[in-house]
Model the fold of this input.
Amino acid sequence: MSDEITRLLDGARDAAPGMTEAAIRGVVVSVLNTLDELIEEAGEDAMWPDPGDLGLLARDVERRG
Done:
């Protein structure tokens, strides 16, 4: 998942060049966790990744710090 994390963090850096690395990681983690909750709430019939997948990415982003 390293490539995905790098892309997410790079996108956040591009969107908010003045933010600290800790703030960027915090935003990415928050967005991934929120999306993960929405996926779980949508149920099995939704066209989302499996519940928990984005949460795993969020944990990886947190560990990068």
